[in-house]
Specification:
By secondary structure, this protein is of the alpha/beta class. The protein is 31% helix and 27% strand. α4 crosses α5.
């Protein structure tokens, strides 16, 4: 059985279909990226996978159990979840916010080494004692990502994890979560920054109008014609000129030739 399994997930609000009949399995050792245009249903799908949004129809299981069958503490040991926006600012320090990820594990004093490591990974060691509400939006986002790292769950669900990050921190954060996958975790992330995220993805899921329209390895899914149709804009996909992977580029709609 897959660690995360969803069957025929559907979410309807006021007779409008937000997500429709999505079936997906995620194994430990996968980095799954969910992409698609605005309004495709990515965040709603991720919320249902996390057990935070109740599906109108369908079922989700995490390590064999439905989220509703678990206590909040039990669920927090099986999966972590990063919402698309930072929570309201608080008077806690950056270190304290990151250390909140330890809470489900009944932390001990020696667990603080994990917090210090996460501070370094998200490049906030120099701001560890600053108040969270004094941080910039990008710094606050990195603090929340540090909290997710400290929570150390088998399944990590990230909604737009690189929102507000500069290019250097975007790459370093994605690489950090890719290392988690290599160590035996599963990561599922929604993104609008497709070009950066697919460098680390083992699987790419494309959504449109609440439906899954593609599900496969980046090699299988990354196709200029498919992306152009999905985003209703000319997009080219080519081999990256100086490293392994892909170059995804929006073209001039008046002259869509990539040459």
């Amino acid at each position: 059985m897959s660690y995360l399994s969803a069957r025929s997930l559907t979410k309807t609000v006021n007779e409008a279909s937000i997500v429709s009949e999505v079936t997906i399995d995620v194994e430990i050792g996968e980095f799954v990226v969910i992409a698609g245009p605005n309004g495709a249903g990515k965040s709603t799908l991720l919320g249902m996978l996390a057990g935070l949004v109740s599906p109108t129809e369908g079922q989700v299981t995490i390590a064999g159990d439905e989220p509703g069958q678990l206590t909040a503490g039990e669920l927090a040991l099986r999966r972590s979840f990063l919402p698309p926006a930072a929570p309201p600012r608080s008077p806690f320090t950056t270190r304290q916010v990151i250390s909140m990820g330890l809470h489900p594990w009944n932390p001990q004093d020696d667990d603080m080494a994990t917090v210090e490591s996460a501070l370094d990974t998200v490049d906030l060691s120099n701001l560890a004692n600053h108040r969270f509400d004094s941080l910039s939006s990008g710094e606050a986002r990195r603090a929340e990502l540090g909290r997710i790292l400290v929570q150390d769950t088998p399944l990590v669900l990230l909604d737009e994890p690189t929102n507000g990050l500069d290019i250097a921190h975007e790459e370093s954060i994605l690489a950090a979560f890719a290392r988690l996958v290599e160590k035996g975790k599963a990561v599922v992330a929604t993104t609008h920054h497709l070009a950066g995220a697919v460098r680390h993805a083992t699987r790419l899921v494309l959504m449109d109008s609440g439906k899954m329209v593609a599900n496969g390895t980046p090699d299988e899914v990354l196709n200029g014609d498919l992306l152009s149709e999905l985003y209703d804009y000319p997009i080219a996909v080519t081999n990256h000129p100086f490293r392994s992977g892909w170059l995804i580029d929006a073209l001039d709609p008046e002259d869509p030739s990539p040459l």
